[in-house]
């Protein structure tokens, strides 16, 4: 699997950011396989689809940026 990921990076010219990467495994895959995979590729491994808990960090960042933009413009769009 690591070979495939490295090959993808070479061919695409894009780096895989392992801290942000994740894999979904079928729920019948043994837990020990998920643990080994997590250690091997150093990324998150989930046994079901992501739910909103997995997106909370990015949602907080987006909300913070929106508030910052609103504060700069006074909360209203300028009319021309």
Name the descriptors:
single chain, 80 residues, mainly alpha, two-stranded parallel sheet, 50% helix, flat
Task: Characterise this structure.
The protein is built from three helices and two strands; from the N terminus they run αβαβα. By secondary structure, the protein is mainly alpha-helical. It has one domain. It has a two-stranded parallel ribbon with strand order 1-2. Strand 1, helix 2 and strand 2 form a beta-alpha-beta unit. It is flat, with a radius of gyration of 19 Å. The model has no long low-confidence stretch (mean pLDDT 79).
Gyration radius over CA? 19 Å
Estimate the helix proportion, in percent.
40-55%
Number of helical segments with 4 or more residues: 3
Main sheet characteristics: 2 strands, parallel
Largest sheet, order of strands side by side? 1-2
Cα(first) to Cα(last) distance is 55 Å
Concise description?
The protein has three helices and two strands.
Topology:
Elements: H1 2-12, E1 22-24, H2 31-41, E2 44-46, H3 56-73
Parallel strand pairs: 1-2
């Amino acid at each position: 699997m690591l070979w495939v990921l490295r090959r993808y990076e070479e061919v695409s010219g894009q780096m895989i950011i392992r801290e942000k990467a994740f894999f979904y495994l079928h729920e019948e895959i043994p837990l020990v396989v998920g643990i080994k995979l997590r250690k091997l590729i150093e990324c998150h491994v989930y046994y079901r689809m992501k739910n909103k808990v997995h997106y909370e960090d990015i949602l907080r960042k987006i909300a913070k940026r929106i508030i910052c933009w609103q504060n700069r413009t006074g909360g209203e769009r300028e009319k021309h």
